[in-house]
């Protein structure tokens, strides 16, 4: 278990297209995760709650970035406890294309495998095979290759 910090900023008067830029800047800063949730503010105005999950040492830098890049005038933050699966990025080769996959373990059991979207998208564009077919093939190959392996068995 680890302790991280969650930051929240309500934003009601900014072009929502700018969120992608802010997400990227925050992720480049090194925060663990960024997300936004729709909400209603006073006077029933539509807004977004920008949320950031980060280590304590990034709180001030993340807040500064939020103030500089958004119209928010305040940020709430509080500690949160997190239990996370162990993760490893591995590759599988499907139809000559190398695709990255995130393998997740809880204890010694593989609990999730996800195919890297950008790799599957690139393979779909290159081959003309639908994206969802690439995702299906990659997951099938990844489960066959990694589904029974323990985290410690992987050579990094």
From TrEMBL:
Keywords in alphabetical order: Lyase, Nickel
Molecular-function GO term, any one: lyase activity
Is-annotated flag, keyword Lyase?
yes
Q: Which Pfam families is this protein grouped with?
A: Ni_insertion
Q: Which residues form a coiled coil?
A: none
Note whether Transmembrane helix occurs among the keywords: no
Q: Which InterPro entries match?
A: Ni_insertion
Superkingdom classification of source? Bacteria
What Enzyme Commission number does this protein have? 4.99.1.12
The entry's protein name is: Nickel insertion protein
Q: Which organism is it from?
A: Megasphaera hexanoica
Lineage at the top is: Bacteria, Bacillati, Bacillota, Negativicutes, Veillonellales
Gene it is expressed from: larC
